[in-house]
Specification:
Blueprint (H helix, E strand, L loop, with lengths): L2 H26 L3 E4 L5 E5 L2 E5 L2 H11 L4
Antiparallel strand pairs: 1-2, 2-3
């Protein structure tokens, strides 16, 4: 069993789940969260948007907006 490839799949799956969770939190706040082609994220609400480098950055901004993780 190649543990390296299993770890990569697990890591990608966890990122996908975390993105989906944060996207749902954003939706509850009336915002949208998008993954950009370059791997960064875009969070938008009320005609305003912010580009974010990581999901941690997105989670921190959602926390400031009143949403949970």
């Amino acid at each position: 069993m190649d543990l390296t490839s299993d770890a990569i799949v697990t890591s990608v799956t966890n990122v996908g789940k975390r993105f989906a969770t944060l996207r749902a939190c954003a939706a509850l706040l009336g915002a949208t969260l998008h993954r950009l082609e370059d791997g960064r994220y875009l969070l938008a609400r009320w005609g305003l948007s912010r580009e974010l480098d990581t999901l941690d950055d997105a989670a921190a901004l959602l926390d400031r907006m009143g949403g949970g993780r």
